[in-house]
Automatic annotation (TrEMBL):
<dbReference type="InterPro" id="IPR029018">
    <property type="entry name" value="Hex-like_dom2"/>
</dbReference>
<dbReference type="Pfam" id="PF00754">
    <property type="entry name" value="F5_F8_type_C"/>
</dbReference>
<dbReference type="InterPro" id="IPR015883">
    <property type="entry name" value="Glyco_hydro_20_cat"/>
</dbReference>
<dbReference type="Pfam" id="PF00728">
    <property type="entry name" value="Glyco_hydro_20"/>
</dbReference>
<feature type="active site" description="Proton donor">
    <location>
        <position position="339"/>
    </location>
</feature>
<dbReference type="InterPro" id="IPR017853">
    <property type="entry name" value="GH"/>
</dbReference>
<keyword id="KW-0378">Hydrolase</keyword>
<dbReference type="InterPro" id="IPR015882">
    <property type="entry name" value="HEX_bac_N"/>
</dbReference>
<dbReference type="InterPro" id="IPR025705">
    <property type="entry name" value="Beta_hexosaminidase_sua/sub"/>
</dbReference>
<dbReference type="GO" id="GO:0005975">
    <property type="term" value="P:carbohydrate metabolic process"/>
</dbReference>
<comment type="similarity">
    <text>Belongs to the glycosyl hydrolase 20 family.</text>
</comment>
<feature type="domain" description="Beta-hexosaminidase bacterial type N-terminal">
    <location>
        <begin position="27"/>
        <end position="160"/>
    </location>
</feature>
<dbReference type="Pfam" id="PF02838">
    <property type="entry name" value="Glyco_hydro_20b"/>
</dbReference>
<dbReference type="InterPro" id="IPR026876">
    <property type="entry name" value="Fn3_assoc_repeat"/>
</dbReference>
<feature type="domain" description="Glycoside hydrolase family 20 catalytic">
    <location>
        <begin position="163"/>
        <end position="508"/>
    </location>
</feature>
<dbReference type="GO" id="GO:0030203">
    <property type="term" value="P:glycosaminoglycan metabolic process"/>
</dbReference>
<dbReference type="GO" id="GO:0016020">
    <property type="term" value="C:membrane"/>
</dbReference>
């Protein structure tokens, strides 16, 4: 990792202690390691000049280019350079050996001058990004801004990143993204001092890299038929469907590499192997396995997911990687290595012979052989292999770097073996997850990763010792695009979560989350200037219900909003505005409503949460469960099934659904007194692709004493092919009872041939209504 100079480190320690007492010194993201405020401000004027201490250094001029161009564009100020030092109102830029660390920098801002010092042009570039954030947000305007004072508060900044690898991954294989969007992402990453863009260029759903030697990879592999998620290249089977996809030419990618280099960002290409390879095998089926009889698989009706381990496959892949390395000069070449089922390898006579010839005892060892053979080629080209943590299986390649995505354990294991690690665990770094429980969130792959979760992540696991910790070189946020078909939705998933990760990897030492929000909210205006479609879920707002002990009314209360913000609400499902009622505490729920509570900042709604409430005889009444839900699906608490809040129709991870793995739901509610009951409504979730099934049967029993129950209804044949909410409304008949017990029988073990076969089925229950 980069190291500070001793003086900067001492200043950091002293000043960091004072900042915890006195608050933040500047609105900069990521927050610098050390800031010391001094009196006054520096004002950029038409007469302001820039002095390069090394005037012939082209990289130095490139490092300052964003300041020069943005001042010209937004302020109409041309920042001309001069050779001699002026008496006042100048910006001096200098490379010096006094500052160590490849990306470290020092800024002194006085009322009459600004001094930027760094050991490398990259350090100068990051100093410029800090300066730009100290200017009014209008500096990011694409048009001339009027009536703006271009002032920078006086201060001294010493800064350097905590981690050398600060990255984002963009999957362009599932959905092709236009070239212009890639340049926009580079611009936005540069603003937040991230230095690595990992492009996932190939997968089963599409091949995006132009190969001159193997043109069918883009002629066929870049275009699939059918829906956005369909993976077939059997064009004859879907004659009425249009082709879907696209690819980047080598010239486009060389241009992109050069553009990224001008922002001090490295692009790492990823070519998937041995699995996720249907697009390549559709184009060149000769590199697939043979079946157990030694015959080629029936193309195109079946397309395999893994390359065969025949010699011709390695020639093909090394040819491709040679072309890739001619385009991308990055140290790292990503070869994936993830999610290989290896089923075909277990049957293919070529692969079985390979295992015998190489004295390999398992298909895991065959994968290790595969990765090591590729690594040897990549190393001979002067590059380093990086892959997902599955490359640990069967033995890690000697020089490989590991991206740990299945939690942190892969990274821990790799660090203990002496390998570099990039942390990217799903719970914190997967930006294809939902980012709030808001039912209006766009469809996502699943999971829930909030802004606060990302911000509170620290890439170095506590179990590593000091030497092993040094091998964690950084972290990366991943956006898989199965459910992200457009650039606008990609921006929504990246921002502001990628900003939080940028601070994780640059600053390292955490500021309190509310202080991060204090800096993030003004930063949003800069995103507005770039027309970024960012998410407005800045807080982790939740609505909790309770029964008032005095009035016995059901009430809803918002939690998760820091003090000091203006909060408003509506009860008709509309989003709050400044004229909406101001939220001042718990709200009584007397009827079915759609409650929306939101935060207004600078006249804009920056976060809100919406929940649908239902009021019936069971709402808010005492209840208990025989089996507690799984801890991963119990955020709403054990009473979520009768708390009055209706869960999402198409999401089971919104905090309201309760989930059981292989267990029955058995809940009893006390209505408080003997009451007339006519209808019971139960809400279940069904999604077999996620191992979630309807119950085998549903039973309703009643009691007057809570001990002796009588079954009054049993409903069977509940299975359905429809995904999402399944609401069962059942006429019980006119009966009278105080206690109601509902039992939903879990469907048991998932049958063979279905996703998750052999595992326990999940059962999800939402609100149960008694009327």
């Amino acid at each position: 990792m980069p190291r500070h100079t001793l003086a900067a480190f001492i200043l950091f320690i002293v000043f960091s202690q004072s900042e915890h007492v006195f608050g933040q010194a500047a609105n900069i993201i990521p927050y610098p390691q050390s800031i010391k405020k001094i009196s006054g401000e520096f004002v950029i004027k038409a007469t302001t000049k820039i002095i390069y201490k090394q005037p012939g250094n082209k990289e130095l001029i490139t490092a300052v280019a964003s300041l020069v161009s943005k001042l010209q564009q937004a302020a109409g100020i041309t920042l001309n350079s001069v050779v001699k030092k002026k008496r006042n109102n100048f910006i001096a830029v200098e490379l010096t050996k006094q500052i160590t660390g490849a990306e470290a920098y020092h800024i002194t801002i006085n009322p009459d001058s600004i001094s930027i010092e760094a050991g490398t042009p990259a350090g100068v570039f990051y100093a410029v990004q800090s300066l730009l954030q100290l200017l009014p947000a209008d500096i990011e305007s694409p048009a001339l801004a009027s009536n703006v004072k271009w002032a920078i508060p006086a201060m001294v900044i010493d800064d350097a990143p905590a981690f050398s690898y600060r990255g984002l991954m963009l999957d362009v294989a599932r959905h092709y993204m236009p070239y212009d969007f890639l340049e926009k992402m580079i611009d936005l990453m540069a603003m937040q001092k991230m230095n690595t863009l990992h492009l996932h260029l190939t997968d089963s759903q599409g091949w995006r890299f132009e190969s001159k030697k193997y043109p069918k990879l883009t002629q066929i592999g870049a275009y699939r038929k059918g829906t956005a998620l369909n993976t077939t290249y059997d064009y004859a089977s879907r004659p009425n469907d249009t082709l879907y996809g696209g690819y980047y030419t080598q010239e486009q990618l060389k241009k992109l590499v050069a553009y990224a280099q001008s922002k001090f960002i490295t692009i790492i290409p990823e070519i998937e192997m041995p699995a996720h390879s249907e697009s390549a095998l559709a184009a060149y089926p000769q590199f697939a396995c043979l079946d157990s009889t030694g015959k080629p698989f029936p193309y195109p009706s079946q397309i395999q997911n893994e390359y065969c381990t025949k010699d011709s496959t390695f020639i093909f892949l090394t040819d491709i990687l040679s072309e890739v390395m001619d385009v991308f000069p990055s140290k790292y070449i990503h070869i994936a290595g993830d999610e290989a089922s290896k089923e075909n390898w277990r049957k293919c006579p070529i692969c079985l012979k390979r295992m015998k010839d190489e004295h390999l005892n398992s298909v895991d060892e065959l994968q290790s052989y595969f990765i090591k053979r590729i690594e040897k080629f990549v190393n001979e080209k002067g590059r380093t292999v990086i892959g997902w943590d599955e490359i640990l299986e069967g033995g890690l390649a000697p020089n490989a770097t590991v991206m740990s995505w299945r939690g942190e354990q892969g990274g821990i294991d790799a660090a203990r073996l002496g390998h570099n690690v990039v942390m990217t665990p799903g719970d914190y770094c997967y930006f294809d997850h939902y980012q709030s429980a808001d039912p209006s969130e766009p469809l996502a792959i699943g999971g829930l990763t909030t802004l606060a979760q990302v911000y509170n992540y620290h890439p170095v696991p506590a179990v590593l010792n000091a030497e092993q910790a040094k091998l964690v070189i950084g972290a990366q946020g991943n956006l898989w695009t199965e459910y992200v078909p457009t650039p606008a939705q990609a921006e929504y998933m990246y921002f502001p979560r990628s900003i939080a990760l940028a601070e994780d990897t640059w600053t390292g030492t955490k500021q309190p989350y509310d202080q991060f929000l204090n800096r993030l909210l003004p930063y949003l205006k800069r995103l507005d200037e770039h027309k970024v479609n960012y998410s407005r879920h800045m807080f982790d707002i939740k609505l909790n219900t309770f029964v008032d002990s005095v009035t016995h009314q059901l009430k809803a209360m918002a939690v998760g909003i820091p003090a000091g913000y203006d909060v408003y609400y509506t009860t008709d499902g509309s989003r709050p505005v400044k004229s909406s009622p101001k939220y001042a505490g718990a709200i009584a729920i007397n009827a079915d409503i759609i409650l929306n509570i939101g935060v207004i900042y600078n006249g804009q709604l920056i976060d809100d949460v919406q929940k649908t409430f239902t009021v019936n005889k069971a709402t808010g009444r005492p209840s208990w469960l025989k089996n507690q839900p799984d801890k991963s699906y119990s955020q709403g608490g054990e009473h979520a099934w009768n708390n009055g809040i209706v869960g999402s129709d198409n999401r089971f991870n919104d905090g309201e659904w309760l989930g059981w793995s292989g267990q029955d739901f058995e809940g009893t509610v006390d209505l408080g007194s003997s009451q007339n009951i006519n209808v019971l409504t139960a809400r279940f979730f069904n999604k077999p692709s996620d191992w979630i099934y309807m119950p085998l049967w549903l039973s309703v029993s009643v009691s007057d004493n809570g001990i002796d129950f009588k079954e009054v209804l049993r409903k069977t044949d509940l299975q359905t092919n429809k995904d999402g909410l399944q609401e069962l409304k059942m006429d019980i008949g006119a009966i009278k009872a105080r206690y109601v017990k509902i039992i939903a029988k879990c469907s048991g073990t998932i049958l063979k041939g279905n996703p998750g076969e052999g595992n326990p089925a999940w059962l999800f229950v939402d609100e149960v209504k008694v009327d």
